[in-house]
Amino acid sequence: QAVNLHECLDLITRLSRHAGKIIKSRINQKKTIETKATSIDFVTETDQEVEKLLIEGIKQKYPNHKFIGEESFAAGIKEKLTSAPTWIIDPVDGTTNFVHSYPNVCISIGLAVGGEVKLGVIFNPVLDMFFRAIKGEGAFLNDEPIKVSGVKNLSDALVAVEFGSSRDEDFRSIVAHNINYLAKHAHGIRAAGSAAWNLAQVARGAIDLYVEMGIHAWDMAAGDIIIREAGGSVMDPAGKEFDLMKRRVLGSSSIEIANEVYPNLQQYYPEHD
Ligand code: LIP
């Protein structure tokens, strides 16, 4: 099944700009929230509405494509990643930010073909920052090419982390250990509340390393290709090859900084997507 990635990008740009208007118009309003996997894993009606809008819009043009969507997954629709063209969608990455009107939320959309992500879009509609990449064609922010910083040492790095959405004691202790290690050596630590945002910041050179374990394919799919196309590295946080379905990511400005950091991390292995 031949896929025209440029046509796909045009479609998804249009749909995410439309969805972005909805998110932006609601971020300062009161939301009705429900919880999903944990007591601090939230979903709002906007997450569900935006995912529906994106999936229906794509299906109209590509009725045979498959979907792995955060909210469809939560509703029990569990697609495996196959070689078929598959859209991997997080309608609102940073739902907790959205709930609290903290202005850092992203729509994150990746398109995998042959099991590999070939196209990615991350759009922060509040800050109007639109990141995109197609395999082999570089990465862009609002149509300007972007590159990773190239920083090679943790001692020169600004690092992004997240505290995750699990209250589990073992998980919290691993996160605390890793953040403590990174904070001890880096220039500084940031936790912006959205994996897609963190990956996009690595791609544009504002963050030098980001590591998180326990997130999902839809948080990482677009960021993976955008970082690689910006010249950066994406690996598993234990130093192995990145696997989109294993819920773990270490994105960085260079392979050197990734190799310095990963042996010092405590590892957490969640159930696969
Ligand atoms: C969030 C991720 C974040 C992680 C949160 C949550 P959501 O995604 O972007 O990195 O720490 O636990 O998974 O749920 O807002 O789409």
From TrEMBL:
Q: Which cofactor does it need?
A: Mg(2+)
E.C. numbers: 3.1.3.25
Alphabetical UniProt keywords: Hydrolase, Magnesium, Metal-binding
Q: Does the keyword Metal-binding apply?
A: yes
SUPFAM superfamilies on file: Carbohydrate phosphatase (SSF56655)
Report the CDD domains cross-referenced here.
IMPase
BP-aspect Gene Ontology terms: inositol biosynthetic process; phosphatidylinositol phosphate biosynthetic process; signal transduction
The record, for Pfam families, names: Inositol_P
Q: Where does Mg(2+) bind?
A: E70, D90, D93, D219
* UniProt cross-references to InterPro entries, sorted A to Z: IMPase, Inositol_monoP_metal-BS, Inositol_monoPase_Li-sen, Inositol_monophosphatase-like, Inositol_monophosphatase_CS
- From the UniProt record, which GO molecular function terms apply? inositol monophosphate 1-phosphatase activity; metal ion binding
Q: Report which reactions are catalysed by this protein.
A: a myo-inositol phosphate + H2O = myo-inositol + phosphate
Known pathway: Polyol metabolism; myo-inositol biosynthesis; myo-inositol from D-glucose 6-phosphate: step 2/2
Indicate yes or no for the key word Metal-binding.
Answer: yes
Question: Could you say which protein family the record assigns here?
Answer: Belongs to the inositol monophosphatase superfamily.
Q: What is this protein called?
A: Inositol-1-monophosphatase
